[in-house]
Amino acid sequence: MDAAPPAKPGLDRLAHLEHLSSRLIDKSWREFMAPYLAEFVGTFLLTLTYLCNASAGDPTWAITSNAFMMMLTMYAFGHISAGNMNPCISLAMWLARRYTFYTALAYCFWQVAGAAAAAFLYYRFAVAEVDLGPKPGFGWMEVMIVE
To answer: Does the record carry Methyltransferase as a key word (predicted)?
Structure first.
């Protein structure tokens, strides 16, 4: 019998790790959770960027920074989850019959969870507070209508 050529040590170890990871996490589970985790991470990054820019006090580059973070999340996660990153967009996709009710609900849940995690992280470690309420001259009703 011919013996197989010896495998390179690094490749053998990598194949073993891939085998273990495929046994630990079923691929169907990873494929199922990928869009929701993409929405979580994308919304987390966007919210953290907005909070950091709001606390900086200098609006000169805040808009550019927010736009670049939005672009980054769209390029990074758009092919995985369509890159909604906002519960209002997920709701609009459900109303347009692009998503089922349960898919839109799951997207909204993970987006709110990502935003809450970013807010928790920011308020846990930040030194400045951010006023996120309506601007002077506007109330919460106007905010809700616009949103």
So the answer is: no
